[in-house]
Amino acid sequence: MIRFGTLRQRLNSRVPEPLGRRQALRMMETSYLAAASALIWVALYYLPVGGPLFRMSLPLPLALLQVRRGPKAGLEGVSLAVLLLVALMGPIRGPLMLFPYGLLAFWLGWSWHRGLSWWLSWGCGALLGTAGFLVRVVALSLLVGENLWVVITRAGAGLLDRLVDWFHLPLAPDLNHVQLMALALVVFQEVIYVLLLHALAFWIFPRLQGPIPEPPRLLHGLVALDPL
């Protein structure tokens, strides 16, 4: 009887304690929002329509997770989304979600959770988005066997030629000027993109119990008119 009682106590001690309500909600939100981000990335990668809408919505689920549940849940969500995409799309295409969308989602969620200024989250987010965009261009160039930076360079050359014609600039654009213009286009794109992410989060997140800091006074007029 004594041995049986001792064995029973040992077995009972190994039974895990049931999850609390808060832990269960955290696990559920992490899994659902990570799966939502993974599905948006799959749709962005394979569907021929809806690209701009998918790009605008891709970082928001994981950022919302971090605003609601903290940085640990945000890191778990990003990791889970990448693992899901590796299983669905392979070890090369799956992790590309990190550049820049996954990194942006983690940075913006962390900034909003900490209540940082929009200037800081916006500026660092634009730099992070630019770096992630360049990494993705390099990875996709290696994947398809072509230099995709040429496409951006052509756009920069066309814009530079138009600026020279419009303003009658005494400038003969060379390769360095074209490369700088192409990089400026990428930076400008990321500045607008990250600002739009801030505006969307400011409109949507409070309705989902995930408020973010108020915009600075200079930008308040751009986002105060809530279209939702």
Strand and helix map with partners:
Elements lengths: L1 H13 L6 H26 L4 H7 L2 H10 L1 H19 L11 H14 L3 H27 L4 H19 L7 H30 L12 H7 L5
Helix pairs in contact: 2-3, 2-4, 2-5, 4-5, 4-6, 5-6, 6-7, 7-9, 8-9
What does this structure look like?
This protein is mostly helical and 228 residues long. The chain has helices at 2-14, 21-46, 51-57, 60-69, 71-89, 101-114, 118-144, 149-167, 175-204, 217-223. It has a single domain (22-109, 116-214), classed as Orthogonal Bundle (Arp2/3 complex 21 kDa subunit ARPC3), CATH 1.10.1760. Helix content is 75%, strand content 0%. The longest helix has 30 residues, at 175-204.
Which characteristics define this entry?
Arp2/3 complex 21 kDa subunit ARPC3; 10 helices; mainly alpha; 228 residues
Short synopsis of the structure:
With 228 residues, the chain is an all-alpha fold. The chain has helices spanning 2-14, 21-46, 51-57, 60-69, 71-89, 101-114, 118-144, 149-167, 175-204, 217-223. The model has no long low-confidence stretch (mean pLDDT 87).
